[in-house]
Amino acid sequence: MSIVAAFDLLVYGLGIPILPIQSAALGLDIADTGLLFAAFAGTQVFALIWALTYASRIAPGRLLGVGVVCCTAAAAIFALSAEWVPGLVAGRMVHGVGSALCWVAGPALVSALYADAERGGALGTVLAVGAVGSLAGPLLGGALYDWGGFPAPFWLATAIGVALIGALISPVGRALARLAAQGGASPGAAILGLLRDGRVIAVLVFLGCATAGLGLIEGMLPAVMHETLGTSGLETGVIFGVAVLCYGLCAPGAGRLSDRVGRVPVSVGGLLLMAVGFALLPLGTTQVAIGAVACVLGVALGFALTPTMPALAEAVERQGTGDYTLVYALHSIVYAAGLFTGPSLGGQGIARHGLTVTLAVVCAVTAAAALLGWGVDRRARARSAAR
User: With a threshold of 0.85, does the pTM exceed it?
Assistant: First the structure.
C-alpha cells in the first residue's frame, strides 16, 4: 500500500507546479484553472459513490490493481495532451478514478492487519511513505518541465506505473489480489449506522475542511506565485516539496500521538494551525516567506488529516461490521469533496475579491470548523457515556 500511495501522490504532485503554468499558456484564467484541478475530485466522487455500493464485494487487492492502472493511464494522457485542454481534463478525471480506488482499498488492507492501539501509527507510516511521492512530484515536475517541457515528467510517471503494474501481476501481487473482501451489513445500513455516530460526523467535518484548504493551496498558489513573483516551475516545486516533507515527517508522529491522547484533539490542533497559516500567507511577499508558511501548512495538514483514518476505523469496530472498505470509501468521498470545493470556490473568490479577502474567509471557516467538530464530538461522547 505504501508504494501504491507514493505512486498515486507522485502523479498528483507532478502537476502541482506545472498545470497552472501550462493552463495559463493555453489561455485559461485562474478560475478556469481551479475548475481543472476540481475535475480530479469531481470524478473521484462518482467513483467513490460506486465504491460505497460495490467495493465491499470485491477483494481490496483487485481494487488496488485497477487503481494503479488508472493512475498510469492518466499519466500517459497528460503526456500526450500538453497543448489540448480537453486532454488535460480527461487526465485529471481518469486519475480521480484511480486515486479513489487506491485510497479505498489500501487503507482497508492496513486497518485489517493492525489492532486499534497500533493503527494510527501504521496509517501514519503509510501516509509518510506516500509523502515521498508528494515530495518527489513537485520537485521532479518542476525540474523536468523546465528541462523537457510539459510531457517529460508524465512520461517518467508512465514508466514507473508500468513497472508497478508488473509487480502487481507477479506471484506476490496475485496473492494480494486473492485477499477476500470483508463482509458486513448492507452498504446502505452500514453507512446510515456510521452517520448516526456524532464522532464520525466530527471527523468528516475535520477531513472536509482540511482537504478544502489543501485543494485551494494546490490549485491557486502556484498560479498566484507565477503571476506576482515570476516563480518558475522548479521554484514552485521546491516550495511545495519542502512543505510535503514537513507533512511526511510529522504524519507518523501525529498518528502515534492520536493513539495516546485521542484523535479529535490532534485534528483540532492541526486545523487551528492551518487557520494560522492561511492568515499568514497573504503577508508573504517573497518566495522564502511563502515557503515558510507552506511548511506551517504542511505540518498542520499532517496533524489534521492523519487521525481521521484510524478514527473512522474505530467507528467500524463500534458498529461491529468489520467493513473497512466501506468506511474508507466514505472517507475518500469527503476528501474528494474538499478537493473539489477548495479550488473551484477558491478560484472564483480570488478572481472576484482577491487573495487576501479569500484567505481571510478560509481562515475563519477553518477555525470555526475545528471548534464545531470538537463540540459535536464531545456531545456524542457524552451521550454514549450516558447510555
Answer: no
